[in-house]
Amino acid sequence: MQDATVLEAVAVNASGEPAPEVSEETWKWWSEAPDRLRVEFAVGDETVTTRFRGATWWSWSASQGARTNQGQPNVHAGKGPGEVMASPGRVARGLDVAPLGTVSFRSGPAYRVRARPEPGNDFALHPLGRGADE
Questions:
Q1: Terminal-residue alpha carbon distance, the chain
Q2: How many structural domains are present in the chain?
Q3: What pLDDT, on the 0 to 100 scale, is given for residue 58?
Q4: In this structure, are 1 and 59 located in the same domain?
Q5: Residues with Cβ < 8 Å from 107, sequence gap 6 or more?
C-alpha cells in the first residue's frame, strides 16, 4: 500500500483488580484511502488479521480459519481494541477535555490534553479497555 496510514498502538490497562495491574496489548492498523484497511490484534493467545476493502472484509485466525462477509454490509468484523484511537468520535462525545499545554510531536506543534469521562458517564472510556480512566 503506497501512501498508507500506519498506526501502531500499545494500550496500557491500569486497573485495581487482582489481575495484573498493567497489561499491554499490541494492535496494528494499516489504511489506504479511500477504502482499504488491514488490522492485526490479539484475541486470547492468537492473532486475528482482518482486511477490509469497501464493504467486503476477509479475516483469518488459527481457531476460526478464514472468514468473509462476501460483501454483505450487515455482517460486521471487529477492527480490534485500538479502533477507538483511529475513530475517536464515539468516545470524545462523553469526555471532559482540558488543555495542558503545547508539545512537539513528529517535529511539529501539538497540544497535550487530559481527557476524563464526564461526571456520571463511567463507561465513556470503555472502548479503550478495562481500567481506562484518564
A1: 34
A2: 2
A3: 97
A4: yes
A5: none
